[in-house]
Here is the input.
Amino acid sequence: MQKRTSFLDDLITLPWWFSLALGAVVYFGLKFYLPSVEFQSPVLLGIGKAFPNMAGIFASIFIFTAAISAYHAWRRGELLDRQTSVKSIKAISWKDFEYLVSEAYRRQGYSVQENTGGGADGGIDLVLNKDGNRLLVQCKNWRSRKVGVTTIRELFGVVTAEGASGGIVVCSGQYTNEALEFAKGKPITLADGTALARLIGDVQKSPQIQATVKDTACPVCQSPMVIRTARRGKNAGNSFWGCSRYPRCKGTRAV
Here is the structure.
């Protein structure tokens, strides 16, 4: 399960203008609207008289939050745009890896909810929402070993328990054969380091990374590809490379 976060933590993950707009509402509400309300309770009447003088203080909290949100947005974008290869991805910290994946999906048009806890999260790192689908994402920036079946099994359990549309595991390396087999026939997408690099290259403002991972480019549109599992037909249960732009593009490659 996701860690419980504070209201301000959640605001930091939202666009900076949201906090700025909320700050403006708070300021005008306390400064001008509250004094016009005729309270019957002496306590509320006292609050109504005191809070207008504190409107600027409360509004400044949201302005500060907007500044932090803007900085984080810039930093995530800069982090993504400077990546040049799978090797450069593996060199970043586990938290920056989450930011990197978050920004990549955000640029694909997803609404992204990040885990804002202070440490490594053994459950869900990101929640993606788009076109009515809710996807749970687990990020693994493991440099020296493959992602095993335990990680995939745990994510599948959370996806099932929360009724999500599906789950995605994103790693900077590869998956064990057991992990790939377990994902077959389940609403779980496994994206390895090469697939992530292709995804990043496709959304970079000035592509720096595409030339290093041509082997998993979509044969139709040259977009990045991710590992998926066939659910119907004669290949049901088998893994394959599918275009990340599906359903707009239906290009595939064999795993």
